[in-house]
Design brief:
about 150 residues, mainly alpha, 3 strands, about 65% helix, globular
Length: about 150
């Protein structure tokens, strides 16, 4: 595990990292309860979200992006295909592989899920004052960057 690189005030930075971890985990758990389709696991929803962002991917690429083993991703893709949420198409350059693409049904479900979660989060954030909103607007790009690292 890489060593935590902290700024000049190491104790305050460590406290901030701890508070961030705790808050993100609690908020994530609460957001997970705002799903529109309870029949999908959080991992299945995450795969659909990844496909929404990248357009399409091989099962191996999805496994790397989702940090799961390739056999697990093969099972996840098969379940999503059986539910009509993804389709497998021939890879344009490698006949041995398939490309996974989300269906219109998945796009609609993800859009509804985003709408529901955004509405819930907006309602929650309505209790923030203007200074807190300013801090949230400033923090959002930083949190997005952390999510992409």
């Amino acid at each position: 595990m890489p060593e935590l690189s902290l700024g000049d005030d190491a104790a305050a930075d460590a406290d901030a990292v701890n508070a961030l971890r705790s808050a993100v985990m609690r908020l994530s758990r609460r957001l997970k309860h705002q799903r529109v389709d309870e029949s999908l696991s959080p991992t299945e929803m995450s795969v659909l979200g990844t496909l929404a962002r990248c357009g399409h991917a091989t099962p191996g690429e999805l496994a790397r992006k989702e940090h799961v083993q390739p056999p697990s991703m093969t099972r996840i893709v098969a379940m999503l295909e059986a539910k009509g949420l993804v389709r497998l198409e021939p890879h344009p350059d490698d006949r041995r592989q398939k490309v996974v693409t989300q269906t219109e049904q998945a796009e609609a479900m993800l859009e509804e899920s985003r709408r529901k979660r955004n509405a819930w989060l907006s309602e929650l954030a309505s209790g923030l004052d203007e200074d807190e909103w300013a801090a949230l607007r400033s923090a959002a790009p930083v949190l997005e960057k952390l999510a992409q690292l």
